[in-house]
Fold this protein.
Amino acid sequence: MTKKVVRINEATIRFAGDSGDGMQLTGTRFTEATAIVGNDLKTIPNYPSEIRAPLGTLAGVSAFQLMFGSTRVFTPGDMPDTLVAMNPAALKVHLRDLKKGGNILANSNAFTDKNLKMAGWEADPLTDGSLEGYTVYSMEMSKLVGKALESSDLTSKGIERTKNMFALGVLFWMYNRPIQPTEDWLRKKFAKNPSIAEANILAMKTGFNYGETTEIFTTSYSVDKAELPKGKYRNITGNVAVAYGLVAAAKKAGKELFLGSYPITPASEILHTLSGLRNFNVKTFQAEDEIAGISAAIGAAYAGALACTTTSGPGMALKTEAIGLAIITELPLVIVNVQRGGPSTGMPTKMEQSDLLQAVHGRNSDATIPVIAPLDPADCFDCAFEAARIALKYMTPVILLSDGYLGQGSGPWQIPDPKSLPEIKVSHPDSSARTEAGFMPYSRDANEARPWALPGTPGLEHRIGGLEKENITGMVSQDAENHQIMTDIRARKVQNIAKEIPPSEIFGESKGKVLVIGWGSTHGSIHVAVARAQKNGQSVSQLHLRWVSPFPPDLKAICDNFDELLIPEVNMGQLALLLKAELIRPIHQLNKVRGEPFRASEIEEKINEILG
Amino acid sequence: MTKKVVRINEATIRFAGDSGDGMQLTGTRFTEATAIVGNDLKTIPNYPSEIRAPLGTLAGVSAFQLMFGSTRVFTPGDMPDTLVAMNPAALKVHLRDLKKGGNILANSNAFTDKNLKMAGWEADPLTDGSLEGYTVYSMEMSKLVGKALESSDLTSKGIERTKNMFALGVLFWMYNRPIQPTEDWLRKKFAKNPSIAEANILAMKTGFNYGETTEIFTTSYSVDKAELPKGKYRNITGNVAVAYGLVAAAKKAGKELFLGSYPITPASEILHTLSGLRNFNVKTFQAEDEIAGISAAIGAAYAGALACTTTSGPGMALKTEAIGLAIITELPLVIVNVQRGGPSTGMPTKMEQSDLLQAVHGRNSDATIPVIAPLDPADCFDCAFEAARIALKYMTPVILLSDGYLGQGSGPWQIPDPKSLPEIKVSHPDSSARTEAGFMPYSRDANEARPWALPGTPGLEHRIGGLEKENITGMVSQDAENHQIMTDIRARKVQNIAKEIPPSEIFGESKGKVLVIGWGSTHGSIHVAVARAQKNGQSVSQLHLRWVSPFPPDLKAICDNFDELLIPEVNMGQLALLLKAELIRPIHQLNKVRGEPFRASEIEEKINEILG
Amino acid sequence: MSESIIEIEELNLTRKDFVPGNEVRWCPGCGDYSVLANMQKTLPIMGVKKENYAFISGIGCSSRFPYYMDTYGFHSIHGRAPAIASGVKLANPDLAVWVITGDGDGFSIGGNHMIHALRRNIDMNIMLFNNRIYGLTKGQYSPTSLLGKKTKSSPFGSVDRPFNPSAIALGANATFISRALDVDAKGLQESIKRAQRHKGASFIEVYQNCIIFNDGEFEDVENKASRPDNALFVVHGEPMIFGKDSDKGIIMNDHHPKVVTLGKDWTEKDLLVHDETNSIITNLLLEMTFDPTNPTPFGILRAVEAPTYDDMLVAQIKEITEIRGEGTLENLFYSGDVWEVK
Amino acid sequence: MSESIIEIEELNLTRKDFVPGNEVRWCPGCGDYSVLANMQKTLPIMGVKKENYAFISGIGCSSRFPYYMDTYGFHSIHGRAPAIASGVKLANPDLAVWVITGDGDGFSIGGNHMIHALRRNIDMNIMLFNNRIYGLTKGQYSPTSLLGKKTKSSPFGSVDRPFNPSAIALGANATFISRALDVDAKGLQESIKRAQRHKGASFIEVYQNCIIFNDGEFEDVENKASRPDNALFVVHGEPMIFGKDSDKGIIMNDHHPKVVTLGKDWTEKDLLVHDETNSIITNLLLEMTFDPTNPTPFGILRAVEAPTYDDMLVAQIKEITEIRGEGTLENLFYSGDVWEVK
Ligand SMILES: Cc1ncc(C[n+]2csc(CCOP(=O)(O)OP(=O)(O)O)c2C)c(N)n1
Ligand SMILES: Cc1ncc(C[n+]2csc(CCOP(=O)(O)OP(=O)(O)O)c2C)c(N)n1
Ligand code: SF4
Ligand code: SF4
Ligand SMILES: [Mg+2]
Ligand SMILES: [Mg+2]
């Protein structure tokens, strides 16, 4: 039988199974193979709550989704075309998202009575007709790998574990991806245990061949290379990209990188990544809590390192007081918040963009701080680098607002040439900075930054601290006039950063009916929605804010050119609040907090509603 | 010589001296005497930074100001008519505030070369003519009390200490206040040490007689009783009023009052006051830090107490995470923030209104909370009572935003008849609330409040916590739909409270050119400024917000009736930000952060500027 | 302190009464299961009404515990359970309050509340699940992880010296300290019973195996075969004997604990006798914890009587109320200088 | 550990080098003055360059200390100084880092950072001003205030049992613990010197009189006349003797410290000999703190050697860098699967 190969532009695939089924790994391998093929892509993992739930339950389902295509891909896709369901629970949880007519690849061996019951299926959906309207590929994956690996050294439990590789093999066949990279990877990963490596490879090949030979598959798909800018690429998650951006900034500034952090979902990978970089002059300090994390970072900044601290919402809440200290002592510091759903512990593994107001205004007193938000995983690199550069140049803490969707999601990253990254000039006064009147730790340069005099420098001994300080001299001052001056300087320093923001790029016409404004990880869905609207001939453009404090200087002028403004946010309207106050004009809002990103279609609908 | 008695409407007096000179006490005694005379009044202490500075230095000056009058008094006064300066440093610091032509009462014995130098006077201002334009009463207070107390048992140091009572005596004479109450008070206070009591009384009388007999004084002043509403009054500081309001609410709700707190300036007096009320069924818990303070309060709320926690800005910052827990567990809790100057440790003894955005939006996630702000010391009682009532009725934490000016300032408080205070209905489900499906800890009443089931109730065993909970059942839920539902309910609960807000009172016409909007302790200065403007025939009215979250339902309608809005705030524009977003219209701002309240004249000027 | 003198009200409670309907969601094989089971078995016989138990926890795998107990429960925020529990107990002293925490929750972020709760001696029971790892966040080293531990956040080995939680408890002047092993039902039940009966803050350290991220951490004592030689179970008033053949004992040697073999040179009478009221003895036992030449001590390491914060607070309220009379709002409002406007 | 083996670089520093121009703003008579003076006297002879000292403090009267030292200083926020100092030391291990804190700053709000800093054994010196009161906030009881203490926030007497800070330090496995008295210049200087020389986290508890809010708290030992009978100054390797006539000593009696009078029944040889490396001895000394039948111990209570966090971190960086080579951005960026778009 010859099988059809259908050329498609893009596809969205979701792998779903029990937490123990290795879906994250399977997804990652598929992603790597897809990247190597040259497609653009975006991925997003979706695992359940923080706790390992019992096998086979709905709560225990773990998933991984990616979208890839021959044109630019901006999101991990809305509704999957293909769903891999390793057990009944996975099917139960994810079926509702599957496109009508989509493919279901299921491990029928897992559809036992017990599992079906646990997942809340009355009967076996694979056989009772309830999946009508979908294309179901029901495969005895467990049995098939069992057979294929009969002669391996693995225990039967070990053999059963390779079934995800079988599924991967089928998918590789189905979407015409190469298996070699995964073979290589498995051999390297299990170098000490070749029999495991070979068993997994065999399982994968069995799956691949199963697709090729059995009759249940009639069609496979090919997706052409995407027209990405020329260059070297790798796939990267936002969390790793943040870590790399900070390392790069430290190198470019000739500084040691210091991280003070406390583990928290979904930010921990930044700590993990940096902990592994001891040979990069990176010092990581796993502190006793978030307060100690930022405090140690403040201490390290004082002593001369490029200092940073990483966390998520509740941890950010705990850092509130210390952020005030960094602001008043005017020390450089990068504070990363990988947002998650709240309030309180809330929805720790789900994404949300709802810490914006906390970042911009969530402190006692008028305590202004620059806030930057990356728009996709690769942009996490640039934003981290930029945050560090600004912190060092303006002697100020900077908040980087990522989220779980960016941090744990991935996409191709065009690897920059390290040499092309801008140098970051940092200077420390030496003994000659001491005048007859003494050393002036709160004197100001052209950007109103104060000098970064390091302990260990002879003659510049001075004291800083959380009490208000006299401008220039740095003496403790509770003087009325001075407090106003210092408050104004602190606000101005942040405002000054606006001049660093390049002219805003507008996607679409620079004048029109609707301008959709976004920040952070909504970029992709907005982009897709706006692109579709433009295709439909609608007068819609997109403006994306990377800096949310300060706002870009051209913000108002741009907005003035549009009749209507729309802000979609995965929160109840936080940027909208700030922009309404800034622009003094009504703004359409699209808000949802469901622990998941927008679908482009949701934004499209809203655009249509506005355009009437 | 017969002396003139001039009838005046109001007077503003400032007592200033070294930290050790007892100015707070002197001021308080003058205040009590003035209250008893029946004047309306407001007071404000002003002491230096947190540390006892060396004797005689500028940093060591401590002051106390009051304004009293025969009509309603809304602020402690802008510029004093009379300044008591116990030493050169006190004169140096406070002279600039004195009204042109005002009185200076100085202890010339303290104007030694050493003290003059320390205070930065080149020559003795009492004698070198530099006080021209003021009426200077230079008195050898130290010497005079020394003489008067020659035969007392006190050490010479002890005698010297009574000079503040001399000054008080002079002032009593000058403003025709009775000395008897202070005599009684001294005898009671020093019951165990009658010789100290008598010495102080003698010093005071010496001062009084000095005023009466010596020729340097020609005029004394009388201020008629104010037309206050009929009733019993006492003088009260905002901090004590908050404590009383909470005790009253607990009594009216039939609840024990539980305070979890950690000392911090300027909020500690609430803790001190409540610690003294063991016989009022008040449990105070001095926690190890602010986080433990609010955590213990949350625990007490869970166990059934009327729980509260008190702090100031930096402590509020530390409570951020736990406030989120109180919000998601929907427990009743009153959180009091007596604001001070910041950021960070900032200006601990100075006032500021700059924690508004922190209160309303300063948390991770969309975590809405009601926020109420008292407008003067007496109103602290009402607001605390109201905050507790709302917390209990809606099962929600409530923030009460006071500030150092309110908390430590004082004014007459019309003592309410305890019987006339509203009962606060609280109900706890009993075992009968358990249905076949179990107990539903997140079921909802008409206000969408959930039931307050107390540990110890048989059959209602249930679990709450910081993870998102399923509505009605209270099971842990990470479901998308449910999270949106719960987020909406939490927002709606706060919004619902708007219906509790009575129609806003407008001071002035309800239609006009300028509406001055204020919140918190700016009320008095705005009131005076607006009253003056109205007298001048200007079309200006005042709207004061007690609830800043939610806003009063009639806010927009009221504002629509005015051409211009003006918001004066002792911060850089926080209410203005919220109102610009709420009303989508431009707002004039008057902002300063100088650690001190507005002067009415500053607001007047701004009004004039707006009116052109 | 002996069991017999405590009268147990006949409440007819059974284990089932403490098992709620929902599913337990720890990893299969997690040491937490056994602790849960022993708690559910022991509470029914403590003479406390079911509705009077309140379980307060922080965040961590172990802190999910309250969801699995059919009692009042509060799964709060990371590290704050002892502070929240303090408020619960003070607001309602009739409750039997339990704090459930982990080595991360209780001794990393929550270390301060922990030592203050122990210091104050508020009558509650704090159970620490020490698995020497952050389980819930998927395997970073914790403040009790041993030096050199390789984890996600210490890929080259941690350089943090570990806490000995029970030693901190002693330093904080705790009045009750015990240590138990997840797999040792008897020891667990003894600790639970004694802690529940102890007036004041009780601290129970449970060595708990995290099968996913730190499997085998306590292998030498978890393993039934090697346990007798590696674990010392102390009993108040009895000599410190251990070993498969009960032939080893502990003596005090130059102010250090030392293992000796009974027989020729040493007899039982030479051995140290456990005294749960003596801090030097407790200190000596705790010093053995990380010392490979000594067995790991388990059992009731310390139990002394001291007034509790809650009792003293209640007594003070009573006393002041007796002296001053119950305060009324009239009293309060009129406590300053009052004047009248007529 | 003996002084002579440490070579002191000739830096020609004097006390004056450490006195800045600004005014000291503690209350006249405050115990803080003496500590400041002794610090300024001792640092010049420690062989450390002036610019390499960094003083980090929290908030409190005592925490104003850095403003009065002409060194690098950071007056930070309440309770966080040990954490900030950890960052300072790790970022620049050449610095001699001092933490200045109070009983409120260091053991109320800051207790957790304190025990973690001691546990990690980061090379820094933590000096605790224990005046058993919150001075700066005008006189509330602190976690070291004695039970029953009447203060602004405990008008009827506090019901909080106090911490013994040095005991917590021992529980946290601190490698250096000493206790000194504000008025005892010799003891203070000895503690400062030994702490500065100690590799690892040093903890110095200073009994300090707050003349305004807690005057006379330590009267029995502050007073020169009663001091000899109430204070025990321990010296490593020497028997524990005290008393005006040096006629009293400490023995170990049934695992408790006990005071005996030398002469008839007891001789020096019967007395306990101080061993700063033995935790049982340290524990025994600390047990005497609140015990009116025993003198209050002062001196170097504990000093043991252990690897420091900072050394281990630096060593790990060196080792990994040797093995892997110094990381370049190329290495980093290309560490995953890379493909090229041409
Ligand atoms: C404020 C805050 N910081 C960090 C976290 C992330 N977090 C949750 S549990 C945990 C550690 C739990 O360790 P442990 O208490 O030992 O519990 P285990 O899972 O090992 O039982 C951490 C770091 C959090 N939930 N909240
Ligand atoms: C976050 C925060 N909470 C509370 C305070 C108020 N505060 C300042 S110092 C202090 C206690 C100081 O006590 P201690 O450390 O013993 O210092 P002392 O003044 O006695 O030397 C408190 C509660 C603060 N500054 N910051
Ligand atoms: S991760 Fe470890 S501690 Fe957590 S449930 Fe699993 S086995 Fe237990
Ligand atoms: S209040 Fe006490 S501790 Fe503070 S400076 Fe004065 S005497 Fe010293
Ligand atoms: Mg753990
Ligand atoms: Mg103190």
Remarks:
- Residues 79 and 335 of chain C are 41 Å apart (CA to CA).
- Confidence is low (pLDDT under 50) at residues 1-7 of chain C.
